[in-house]
Design brief:
The complex is a heterodimer of chains A (421) and B (81). Chain A contains two helices and 21 strands. With 421 residues, chain A is mainly β. In chain A, a hairpin with a 4-residue loop joins strand 1 and strand 2. With 81 residues, chain B is mainly alpha-helical. Chain B contains two helices and no strands. The chains are: A mainly beta (421), B mainly alpha (81). Chains A and B meet through helix 1, strand 1, strand 2, strand 3 and strand 4 of A and helix 1 and helix 2 of B.
């Protein structure tokens, strides 16, 4: 704090008093500074459950647990565990009336044999993810964060880590941060194979698992605007090299009436560069004491999958121990430059005469898309240090030039949190 | 028709006014002393948001959309469909 720089005894005493006063205002963190003896018993625990369902496609149950606390007066640790079970169907990429779909082995142990039909493939999977983050205060205004994570599914393994540094200004009006992250992903079907790219289904060769390596760099700044407003700005760059193809996705080869000749496996470029600008502002409205959050993200992509995302939350305190927080998210993305609904052919052409592009995918997630999420969160404070949160939302997506016009999902989330200190 | 135009004009004016009244105080820079940071330290004002909400959002949108990221580096990849 700026006032603590004064050297005289009088000023030192004043600064101590101000420090204690500020500590009481700043809550837990500052309280720790004033009461170092209590450091080792400060733990926050969050346990959550998510149910997500797309009525025509999948259902997901997710169980989450997070714990964070202090290891010493300079060290903090955060642990997270997530377990997912997924079942249902996923779009294959083929035309909706396709009769040839025979993708096999979609995700995990309980694979529905023979795939599906009508552009959908049945699947069943489980996933376990673990992450840990260690934070250390190097100097009074300088901190580092080191993290590692691992995620394992029947057909996908991701391992990664990050290193970050944060520097506060002397008056703590702003914080600058920089971070680097490295990750490696192993991708395959559940039998550890990947199909030959852009090969006719049923006649494709199979290869071993694909590998993808990703490096991310992020620079960030947070700024206190005034006593009711603070903001952040992050600039990120990401480079990934290797296998980006989804081994389960296929593309219909069809004429302009959607009369299907055959299907081929997809193939995506082996390099992807992304640049992301993310900004967020939080504000307490003076008149009502409600809290408004606004964020905007611009995503630029070497695949031309550029997107805009706007999110807002509005927290209204209903009574002393409960509040409600409606939220709205609007998203738009351009199609990837190799996205195609089908590989178009002239009527009567045989497959051996079809000229295939270098890269192609009919995955709707790479098509032009607009999505809207609308929902609300109800927060019930069980005590000053605990809460039960319920969050429900509806997520709708509209696609342009895709084999699906639109689809929707709803989700329900429960979260129990408790601080022990 | 005239009535509709007047109503539209009033609605736009009111929306504009309320937007200005919200945005204007958000852009007034001031020096904030440590003992004036009580509001900024509230849980509801945290820029990183609730960790469980953030995880759920990332997980859903990562699985269903073509773009991701912006708030952290690394992030858990998955073969989610």
């Amino acid at each position: 704090m700026a006032v603590t720089n004064n050297k005289s005894k009088t000023h030192s005493n004043i600064s101590k008093q101000l420090g204690v006063a500020a500590s009481s205002l700043l809550g837990t963190c500052a309280t720790q500074a004033a009461e170092p003896d209590n450091l080792y018993n400060n733990w926050d625990i969050d346990v959550g459950y998510l149910y997500y369902e797309e009525p025509e496609y999948i259902a997901v149950d997710t169980y989450m647990a997070m714990i964070k606390g202090n290891l010493s007066d300079k060290d903090t640790i955060k642990l997270g565990v997530v377990f997912d079970t997924l079942s249902g169907a996923t779009p294959s990429g083929a035309l909706p009336d396709s009769e040839f779909v025979s993708v096999s082995g979609v995700s995990g142990g309980g694979v529905s044999g023979g795939g599906g039909s009508g552009g959908k493939v049945a699947f069943d999977d489980t996933r376990l993810a673990v992450d840990v983050q260690w934070g250390r205060e190097l100097k009074r205004l300088l901190r580092t964060k080191v993290s590692a994570y691992m995620s394992v599914e029947g057909d996908y393994t991701a391992v990664g880590g990050s290193l970050g540094i944060e520097q506060d200004s002397k008056d703590k009006a702003y914080t600058l941060s920089a971070a680097i992250g490295l990750a490696t992903d192993k991708v395959s079907k559940s039998d550890e194979s990947t199909p030959e790219p852009l090969a006719e289904l049923g006649n494709e060769d199979t290869y071993g698992a694909g590998h993808k390596n990703t490096a991310d760099v992020m620079f960030g700044a947070t700024r206190v605007i005034n006593r009711r407003t603070q903001a952040m700005l992050n600039l990120s760059y990401s480079l990934s090299l290797g296998y980006h193809t989804d081994p389960y996705k296929i593309i219909s080869v069809a004429d302009n009436t959607d009369s299907e000749l055959t299907q081929v496996t997809e193939h995506r470029p082996d390099t992807r560069e992304r640049f992301i600008v993310y900004s967020k502002i939080m504000h307490e409205l003076p008149s009502s004491g409600h809290h408004l959050g606004l964020s905007y993200r611009y995503h630029m992509d070497s695949w031309q999958l550029n997107s805009h995302t706007i999110e807002t939350t509005y927290n209204l305190k209903l009574e002393s121990n409960n509040s409600i927080e409606p939220f709205l998210r609007l998203y738009h993305q351009q199609a990837a430059d190799f996205y195609t609904r089908t590989i178009l052919i002239d009527p009567g052409v045989v497959f051996s005469d079809v000229t295939l592009p270098e890269h192609a995918s009919a995955d709707v997630r790479l098509s032009e898309m607009q999505s809207t999420t609308l929902g609300a969160k109800y927060i019930y404070k069980t005590s000053a240090k605990g809460s039960i949160d319920t969050r429900i939302g509806y997520y709708h997506r509209n696609y342009t030039n895709a084999n699906i016009n639109d689809d929707g999902a709803y989700f329900v989330q429960l979260d129990f949190s408790k601080a022990f200190n | 028709m005239h009535y509709l135009l007047v109503r539209t004009f009033l609605l736009v004016w009111l929306l504009g006014l309320s937007a200005c009244s919200i945005i204007e105080p958000m852009t007034n820079f001031e020096t904030v002393k440590p003992w004036q940071k009580g509001i900024l330290a509230k849980e509801e004002m945290a820029l990183e948001g609730d960790p469980i909400d953030a995880y759920v959002n990332d997980h859903i949108y990562f699985s269903k959309e073509g773009s991701t990221g912006g708030t952290s580096v690394g992030g858990g990849g998955c073969g989610c469909n």
